[in-house]
Task: structure prediction
Amino acid sequence: MIQKINDNLYIGNLRGYQDCDLNIQFLSLTHKAIPRGAFKRIEMIDSSSESHFYDQQFVDAIEFMLKAPTLVFCDQGGSRAPSVALLYMSVCGDISNTSYFDACREFRTIYPWYKPNTGIRTFLANNWHSLQLRPPRRQP
Result:
């Protein structure tokens, strides 16, 4: 499954990545993907504990995504990938950045399959404002 969110953002699962024929860059949040093309992998397990998540994972993801249209994907496309996409959209001003919960409400109208695990949801809610302080710089 791949869902186009806008011209710069696609969200998918591992199967969608494997079948993808789009000429875009790929951001993997799983260890199972075979790299091809413009590819970046960020170690991010789908944990129920917020202690498994770090600011730098999200900063690195956003910086990569700002370079070119991106398919961000994880195993099932329900937790990690859409969580990073939600943060990306809020940093870029596409959805609310006032709080994780406000952004989440808006994001679910765009991507109703969003089902974040407890760990990533708690991490983003607790670190939302510090992650928003980094200004986006989309590449031309």
In short: The first strand starts at residue 2 and ends at 6. The two ends are 28 Å apart (CA to CA). The chain has a mean pLDDT of 90. The chain is about 40% helix and 15% strand.
